[in-house]
Every structure is written in C-alpha cells, then in structure tokens.
Amino acid sequence: MHDIKWIREEPQGFVGALLRRGTDKAEAQALVDSLIALDERRRAGIVKLEELQARRNSASKDIGAAKKAKDDATADALMAEVATLKTAIPALEEDVKAAEAELHGKLAAIPNAPLPEVPEGADEHGNVEIGKVGAPRSYDFTPAQHFEIGEALGQMDFEAAAKLSGARFVVLKNRLARLERAIGQFFINTHTEEHGYTEIAPPVLVKDEAMFGTAQLPKFHDDQFPAGDGFWLIPTAEVPLTNLVAQSIVAEEELPMRLTALTPCFRAEAGSAGRDTRGMIRQHQFNKVEMVSITTPEQSPDEHERMLACAQAVLKKLDLHHRVMTLCTGDMGFASAKTYDIEVWLPGQNAYREISSVSTCSDFQARRMNARYRPAGAKQPRFLHTLNGSGVAVGRAMVAILETYQNEDGSVTVPDVLVPYMGGLTRIEKA
C-alpha cells in the first residue's frame, strides 16, 4: 500500500515509479490524477464534516440560551437548522466513507515501487546475474530428469496422486518420502541453529485480512485456494509470519525480528496452464521453509543481503551449483521493492530453475496491515519494513538433489549433510 501523502506531494515521482513497473504513461498520469482527486474529495469532506459538527454543537447550545431568554423565534430557527444538519451530516459522512473506500481500493491494486538500483526490464530477459556458486557437474551418461529418476526408483508416483487429487500432485514413497522430510528438517535446523531465526509453527489457514496484508488479495485471488468460511490455505508461510505484527506497535529493541517456518504451501497456479506439467517443479501443494524479517527502514538493506546469504548457505552445504539474479522491474513480485532469485542448476533439464526468491517489501506490506514500531525517544510510531525469502523450497531442492546426485545405475547418492537425517543411509536405490 502506498502513502497517499507521498503521492500528493510527489506526483511525478509516483508516475515515474509506475512507468518503471511497465504502466503506460497516460494511464499512470490518469491514475495519479484520480488518486489525488479522491484524496481531495475525502479531505474536503472531512473539513466540511468538522465544520457542520461544530455548528450543530454550537446551535444546540444556542437553542437552550434562546429558550431561556424566551426568544421563541430564534429558538425555532436554530432547531430547524439543527434538524437540517442532522440530515446533512450523515450524508456527508457516507460520502467521506465512500471516497476513503474507493481510494483504499485503488491504492491496494498498485504494485510496490522498485528501489532505484533495480534494473529496468519488461520480463525475465531483463534480469541481471550477479554471481554463481560452484560449477555444473559432468556426467559419463545423459542425466535424467527428476521424475524419470523417481519413477524408475518406484518411489515417486504421479498416477496415484492424480487418482487422489488430480494433476500437479505427487505421492512420495519409502526413501524419497524420508528424503523430503530430511531436507525440510535440515533447512529449518540450519536457519534456527546457525542463522538466528526463531522457529514458528503457524496456522496454514488464514483470514482475508492476513492475505490482504501481504498482498495476495485482492489482486491474486485466482491463484489462491479458498477453504470456506472466510479462510484461505496459505500460499507461503510469509503470510502468517509477517502478519504476526499486524495491527501492532513493536518496540525498536525487538528489531530486527527474524522468523522461520516449515509448512505446506498451496497454490492454484491459475496462470501456469501448460507449464511444468510433469514432475515436482510446479505443484498445487508443496513444503517450503520460509524466512521473514521485520526491521526498521534503516536495517532493511543489510537484512536483505543477510537473508540472501542464509538462503544460499543451505545450498552451499548441499553442494548444489546455483546462481543469483537481481530481478528487473518487469519481473518482480507485486509487493516487492527489490528481489533476488536463486536459481539452481538442474542437469536433467540442462537449465537453471528458481529455488528461492528473497525480497524486501519496504513499508508496502506494513501499511496494508498497519504494522509499526516506536523508535526510541520518538513520540510517533513509524511503519516497519518487511522482508521474506524461501530458505528454501523443499520440493525444488529434492528435484535438484535427485538430478545432481544421480548415478548411472539409477540410484541417487545422499548428500553428506543429509546422511544423519536419513538414518545413516548414503544411497537411495530401487526398493
């Protein structure tokens, strides 16, 4: 959510932010003009409302004085005026509420403004690589894709999942089921024991207000799974973790607040028809470790870099080759002010695929959920900054492990750091 005061005071700066997000110039100017007009209508209505309320109160007192003076004509005139005001005031209140609601709706539909250093670009082709870690492995055979490996092992069953739930689901069995559990436990333990995150076990059902706060609603309504009675299945633990500070004022000494959770996530993938229909890359249900940081505005740039390093750390421990991309203005998420994507190398696909997004949202989400902090010695609270990042997606990590650690005989070597989580098992073979 944007600050209407900023838009009012720096209209061309806001137009520039919209242009960087890909909005047409005429459309951007028209939007800004409509926002300012709505705000002027709202503010003028509030001023007029205060004037009418003050006049009603004053006239009510004058009625008593006129009656006491037995000035019936004046008293009657004042009573008529108060009666008129009692009709006018509710109508004006409704007009102010309508202007506020329309302004709120328009502001809620506008994406966050990119930070100045975010590269310009229309789509993923404008993203900028900022570094690689490791190098692709070489194989004496043609690497298979993860679903080919899993199905050959007899431990990855898409047909059984389709009978239960339809497309974009999987049933993992035996050692692969344990491998998925091991990966998640390894990630969450690393972030809590080495990176200073506090583990949270949040609900996976949340209300409309929580989804609005982190900007899944209303724009991405079709990408979510409604659960009935005003509940939604979470698309990411970012939603409950970030909303823990909603409608609250946090003490500055509590910041930065670092939270993490391992949860199932649910996404309708409404805009992904025909994409990644085979395998575990894009599913309706998957497990993910999420990291969330709540900071002051001054802390957020360094926290963004720190969160990126935390996400990379688990991939380095797994010895998975990956690269880091800065997303361009046309490829960033709706709530993001700047995003790094970590893309892991998949030998079976012979391509890099996203395994984590690490974003700073500035005060965009905090304004939507009214999350603030009180600086030491300050009278007025300020809006917090929120950041989130995958630490990382468990299913995609499994995909990368299966393809990276595959052997010519179809078995998969267990990465060293996961062996303790696998009960000492060092190789996954066909049961």
Descriptive tags:
12 helices, alpha+beta, 431 residues, elongated, BirA Bifunctional Protein, domain 2, Helix Hairpins, 3-stranded antiparallel beta sheet
* Count of discrete domains: 2
The CATH architecture category of the largest domain equals 2-Layer Sandwich
Low-pLDDT stretches are none
Overall shape: it is elongated
The CATH superfamily label of the largest domain reads Bira Bifunctional Protein, Domain 2
CATH class of the largest domain: Alpha Beta
Number of strands: 18
Determine the strand fraction and express it as a percent band: 15-25%
CATH topology of the largest domain: BirA Bifunctional Protein, domain 2
Terminal CA distance: 53 Å
Helical segment count:
12
Mean pLDDT score:
95
Helicity range of the residues? 40-55%
List the helices and strands in order.
HHHHEHEHEHEEHEEHEEEHEEEHEEEHEE
Structural class determined from secondary elements: alpha+beta
Radius of gyration: 28 Å
Account of the 3D structure:
There is one protein chain. The chain is of the alpha+beta class. The protein folds into two domains: about 5-110, Helix Hairpins; about 125-430, BirA Bifunctional Protein, domain 2. It has twelve helices and 18 strands. The protein has helices at about 5-10, 10-20, 25-70, 70-110, 145-155, 160-165, 175-195, 210-215, 240, 300-315, 365-370, 395-405; strands at about 130-135, 155, 170, 200, 205, 225-230, 230-235, 250, 255-265, 285-295, 320-325, 340-345, 350-360, 370-375, 380-385, 385-395, 410-415, 425-430. It has an eight-stranded mixed β-sheet with strand order 1-11-12-13-16-10-9-4. Strands 5-7-6 form a three-stranded antiparallel β-sheet. Helix 2 runs antiparallel to helix 3 (about 25-70), helix 3 packs antiparallel against helix 4 (about 70-110) and helix 7 (about 175-195) packs across helix 12.
